[in-house]
TrEMBL record:
<keyword id="KW-0798">TonB box</keyword>
<feature type="domain" description="TonB-dependent receptor-like beta-barrel">
    <location>
        <begin position="229"/>
        <end position="602"/>
    </location>
</feature>
<dbReference type="InterPro" id="IPR012910">
    <property type="entry name" value="Plug_dom"/>
</dbReference>
<dbReference type="InterPro" id="IPR039426">
    <property type="entry name" value="TonB-dep_rcpt-like"/>
</dbReference>
<keyword id="KW-1134">Transmembrane beta strand</keyword>
<keyword id="KW-0812">Transmembrane</keyword>
<dbReference type="GO" id="GO:0044718">
    <property type="term" value="P:siderophore transmembrane transport"/>
</dbReference>
<dbReference type="Pfam" id="PF07715">
    <property type="entry name" value="Plug"/>
</dbReference>
<feature type="domain" description="TonB-dependent receptor plug">
    <location>
        <begin position="37"/>
        <end position="130"/>
    </location>
</feature>
<keyword id="KW-0813">Transport</keyword>
<dbReference type="Pfam" id="PF00593">
    <property type="entry name" value="TonB_dep_Rec_b-barrel"/>
</dbReference>
<dbReference type="GO" id="GO:0015344">
    <property type="term" value="F:siderophore uptake transmembrane transporter activity"/>
</dbReference>
<dbReference type="InterPro" id="IPR036942">
    <property type="entry name" value="Beta-barrel_TonB_sf"/>
</dbReference>
<comment type="similarity">
    <text>Belongs to the TonB-dependent receptor family.</text>
</comment>
<keyword id="KW-0472">Membrane</keyword>
<keyword id="KW-0675">Receptor</keyword>
<dbReference type="InterPro" id="IPR037066">
    <property type="entry name" value="Plug_dom_sf"/>
</dbReference>
C-alpha cells in the first residue's frame, strides 16, 4: 500500500491495498474498459459531492454547482442511459429535468465502478451506454480487525457560504453480528462565484444517513440489510439547474428525498459451483416543489432484485442468473386557485431478465469477457395502455498482453433497453399512445484501447463510440411517443508516474455528441447528452512521512467549445482552468486525528463546469449556475 494512503488513514480504518497505484482504468478479465474510483482515491479526495468524486476522470463530467441538480455524463452520455445501482439496487430517479438524477452523499462511498459503453450482462438491464455501480462502506472497511466497536467523528467549516458539516459513524462487531450507523448534517448560506456574486439558491441544508446490519453464519452465508437516505430541502433557483432563464432571479423550495433499502445474501465460503448472490431492494425518490399558486410532487421508485450464481472454471468464471424490476413514476399536481384542477398521471414498467457473463483467461496473456441477456418488459402508459416487448443484448471484450508492458483491448455491445419511463414533471394525463406502441430503445457501443505499464510509468489510450437509437424524448404537448437518435464518440489519453511517496496523473479527453445527426446543445440533449469537448485533468500527491504530512493538488482544464448547434446561433462554451490544493496532517502523538486544510478554486476562477446546463444561451439572458469561487475549508476527523 502506498505511503500516501497510510498517512491519509487512521488506525481504525482498514483498507484493501490496490496493486495498481496509478490505475483509474482497471483493465483485467473482471472489468475490461472499467473506470474506477476506489477507496484510496476517495480517501485522498474526501469528496463533498459527485463533482469531487469524478474530478480526476476526464471522460466523466458532473454538471451544476448545486448537488440537487448535478447530473453525471459518461463519455458524453447522461446517466439515465446507463444502468445505475447503489449497493446493487437499481435506481429509477429520472423525476425532473431541472434537478439531479442520482443524489448521493459520497462520504460513505467505498468505491464507484463505471463500465463506460460496453457493460457486462450481469450489470443490470438497460445498460444502453454502460453502467455505474456505487458501493457504500461496510463495518470491515471502517473497523480494524480485532476491534469490537469504534467510531468516526468529522467536523468541517467552509468559508464560502459559511458551511458547517458534521458527521458521526458508529460501528460494532459482536461475534457473527455487525452493525453500522452513520449520519451527517450540513448547513450553510448562499455561496459566491469567482466574481463575488451570489450564486442563486446555493444554500446548504442536507441530512443524510446510512445504516447496516449483517449476520455471518457458520457455513459462510452472509445476510445484510442496508438503509441509505439523503434529504435536500432549501430554496433553489426556480429552475434548479440554472440561475435564470430570462434574467429574473426567482427561487422556490425543492424538497428532495431519496431512500435505498437492500437485503442481500452472499457467501464468504464459495466453492467452484456455489458462489451465490440473492438481492431484493427498493429505491425511491420523492420531490416536492410547492409555490404560492400550485404544488407538484413527483415520485419514482423501483422494486428490484437478482438471483445469480458464479461458477468457477479452470480458465475463469461464469456468472448466470435472473433479475427483475418493477418501476413506477407519477406526479401529483394541484392548482391552488382551482382545487378541482388536480391530476395524477403516471407510467410503469415491469421487466424480467435472464443473463450469463463469462470472464475467462484462456492463456496467461489473454482475458475475455463476454455475455448475453434476454429481457421481457411490460410497459403501462398514463392512459392505461399496455405494451409488451422483448429483446436480446450481447457484449464481448478481449485484452491481450503483447508484451509484459503493453496491453491491447477492444470490445463491443448491442443493448436492448425496452421502453423507458418518461420524466414525471412532463407527464400529461391527456397523452394518447400509438396503437402499435413505442419503439424500444437500442444501442451499440465500441471501444479500442491500449495500455503501457512499466515500473513507475503508466500510459493508456482509448477510442470509444456509442450509438443510441429510438431514445425516448416525450414532451407535455408533443406527446409520449417522440424519440431521438443519439451518438457520442471520442478518445481519452492518460499518463501517470509514481514514486515511493507520491504520484502524478494527467488525463485528456475529447468528446463530441449529436442528436438526430446535428451537434447537440444542452437543451436538445436533455436526458441524452451535453456538449463536452476537450478536457484535461491533473493530479499531484506528495507525502512527507517524517512530518506526518500529505500535500496534494489537482486541476481541471476545459477548452473553448463551439460549433455544436446548427439550429440557431449559440454562444461558445468558455474554457477555464481551475486549481484545488490541500494539506493533510496526522500528529505523531495523536494518530487517530486527521487534520485537513483545503483550498478549492485557488485562483478564484469565474466558470461553470462543462457539464452545466445552458452556457451556450447566456446571450439570450440565461444565467448558468457558476461554480463557487475560492473557498478555504478546515476539517478534523477523529477515530475512536
Amino acid at each position: 500500500m502506498s505511503s500516501i494512503v497510510l498517512l491519509a488513514g487512521t488506525p481504525a480504518l482498514s483498507q484493501t491495498a490496490d496493486p495498481d497505484f496509478l490505475g483509474t482504468i482497471v483493465l483485467d478479465y473482471s472489468g475490461v474498459n472499467e473506470v474506477g474510483v476506489d477507496s484510496d482515491d476517495l480517501d485522498t479526495i474526501e469528496p463533498d459531492n459527485l463533482q469531487d468524486v469524478f474530478k480526476n476522470e476526464p471522460t466523466v463530467q458532473v454538471g451544476s454547482s448545486l448537488p440537487i441538480s448535478q447530473k453525471i455524463y459518461v463519455n458524453g452520455i447522461e446517466e439515465n442511459n446507463l444502468a445505475v445501482t447503489i449497493d446493487g439496487s437499481r435506481q429509477n430517479n429520472k423525476i425532473f429535468h431541472h434537478n439531479a438524477t442520482t443524489y448521493i452523499d459520497p462520504v460513505m462511498l467505498k468505491q464507484v465502478r463505471i463500465d463506460p459503453g460496453v457493460a457486462p450482462a450481469d450489470g443490470g438491464p438497460g445498460a444502453l451506454a454502460g453502467s455505474i455501480a456505487f458501493e457504500t462502506k461496510d463495518v470491515d472497511d471502517l473497523l480494524a480487525p480485532g476491534l469490537s466497536y469504534g467510531g468516526i467523528f468529522s467536523t468541517e467549516y467552509q468559508t464560502n457560504g459559511d458551511v458547517f458539516v458534521n458527521s458521526l459513524a458508529l460501528m460494532t462487531r459482536q461475534g457473527p453480528f455487525e452493525a453500522l450507523a452513520y449520519g451527517k448534517y450540513a448547513t450553510g448560506d448562499s455561496q459566491t462565484d469567482g466574481d463575488g456574486n451570489d450564486i442563486l439558491g446555493s444554500g446548504t441544508n442536507v441530512i443524510s444517513g446510512l445504516a447496516k446490519v449483517a449476520y455471518s453464519a457458520e457455513n459462510g452465508g452472509r445476510f445484510e440489510l442496508t438503509y441509505e437516505n439523503v434529504t435536500d430541502d432549501d430554496m433553489r433557483p426556480f429552475r434548479a439547474d440554472m440561475g435564470s432563464a430570462d434574467g429574473s432571479l426567482r427561487t422556490r423550495v425543492y424538497d428532495l428525498n431519496r431512500e435505498n433499502i437492500v437485503f442481500s445474501y452472499t457467501t464468504d465460503a464459495p466453492t467452484d459451483m456455489w458462489d451465490p448472490k440473492v438481492l431484493v431492494a427498493y429505491s425511491v425518490t420523492n420531490l416536492e416543489v410547492p409555490t404560492d399558486y400550485d404544488a407538484s410532487q413527483g415520485k419514482t421508485d423501483s422494486f428490484n432484485g437478482v438471483i445469480q450464481n458464479r461458477f468457477s472454471l479452470p480458465i475463469g468464471t461464469v456468472t448466470a442468473g435472473v433479475d427483475f424490476y418493477s418501476d413506477d413514476a407519477y406526479i401529483d399536481y394541484l392548482d391552488r386557485a382551482d382545487p378541482a384542477a388536480v391530476f395524477r398521471p403516471g407510467e410503469s414498467a415491469e421487466n424480467v431478465g435472464l443473463f450469463a457473463q463469462a470472464r475467462l483467461t484462456p492463456t496467461d496473456r489473454m482475458r475475455i469477457s463476454a455475455g448475453a441477456r434476454g429481457d421481457l418488459q411490460s410497459f403501462t402508459g398514463t392512459d392505461g395502455s399496455s405494451f409488451d416487448n422483448s429483446g436480446l443484448s450481447a457484449n464481448a471484450a478481449v485484452e491481450y498482453d503483447v508484451t509484459d508492458a503493453i496491453t491491447l483491448s477492444a470490445g463491443a455491445s448491442h443493448i436492448w433497453g425496452g421502453i423507458t419511463l418518461a420524466e414525471n414533471f412532463i407527464m400529461n394525463p391527456d397523452w394518447t399512445y400509438p396503437a402499435d406502441g413505442i419503439e424500444p430503445v437500442t444501442s451499440e457501443n465500441y471501444f479500442i484501447a491500449a495500455a503501457y505499464n512499466w515500473g513507475a510509468w503508466s500510459l493508456s489510450g482509448k477510442v470509444f463510440k456509442t450509438d443510441i437509437d429510438n431514445a425516448r424524448t416525450p414532451s407535455y404537448s408533443g406527446g409520449p411517443a417522440l424519440t431521438s437518435d443519439v451518438n457520442s464518440d471520442g478518445y481519452e489519453l492518460k499518463a501517470g508516474y509514481a514514486w515511493q511517496t507520491g504520484r502524478v496523473r494527467i488525463g485528456f479527453a475529447d468528446i463530441q455528441s449529436d442528436v438526430n445527426g446535428a451537434p447537440a446543445d444542452s437543451y436538445v440533449g436533455r436526458y441524452l447528452t451535453t456538449p463536452i469537448g476537450q478536457q484535461v485533468t491533473l493530479e499531484v500527491l506528495q507525502a512527507l512521512p517524517d512530518y506526518g504530512l500529505v500535500l496534494g493538488a489537482d486541476a481541471q482544464i476545459a477548452f473553448d467549445e463551439d460549433g455544436f448547434y446548427d439550429g440557431a446561433p449559440a454562444d461558445t462554451l468558455p474554457g477555464y482552468q481551475v486549481v484545488n490544493a490541500f494539506v493533510e496532517y496526522v500528529p505523531p502523538r495523536f494518530e487517530n486525528l486527521r487534520l485537513r486544510l483545503q483550498v478549492n478554486n485557488l485562483f478564484d476562477e469565474l466558470y461553470a463546469d462543462r457539464g452545466t446546463y445552458g452556457q451556450e444561451f447566456v446571450s439570450d439572458g440565461l444565467i448558468p449556475l457558476y461554480e463557487p469561487g475560492r473557498s478555504v475549508s478546515v476539517r478534523a476527523t477523529l477515530t475512536f
